[in-house]
Amino acid sequence: MSCEHLVCASCAAPVVEGRCLVCRSARSRLHRHDGVGFSPQLMLLVAVLLAVVAVALVHLPG
């Protein structure tokens, strides 16, 4: 999500400009990069690793 087209309810200015405390707070929340989310590349890597492990388990003798 981007704050380019959002308008602040407090000061009626574009949020991206950060004119008031409410704008700055909303902008920082939208642009926070705290590492909690998973990137598509990481999810793909995990899926590939799980597939490799599954194939290895199927082909084990026993």
What does it look like?
By secondary structure, this protein is mainly α. The termini are far apart. The mean pLDDT is 84. The chain is rod-shaped and about 70 Å long. The protein has helices spanning 21-30, 40-58. The chain has one domain (15-58). It is built from two helices and no strands.
Brief characterization of the structure:
This protein is mainly alpha-helical. The protein has helices at 21-30, 40-58.
Mean pLDDT: 84
The helix content is 40-55%
SS class: mainly alpha
Order of helices and strands: HH
Q: What's the Cα radius of gyration?
A: 22 Å
Number of strands: 0
Note the overall shape: rod-shaped
| Biggest sheet details | none
Counting structural domains, the number is 1
Unreliable residue runs: none
Strand content: under 5%
User: Regarding quaternary structure, how should these chains be classified?
Assistant: single chain
DSSP summary: helix tally? 2
First-last Cα distance: 51 Å
Features:
single chain; 62 residues; mainly alpha
List the helices and strands and how they pair.
Blueprint: H1 21-30, H2 40-58
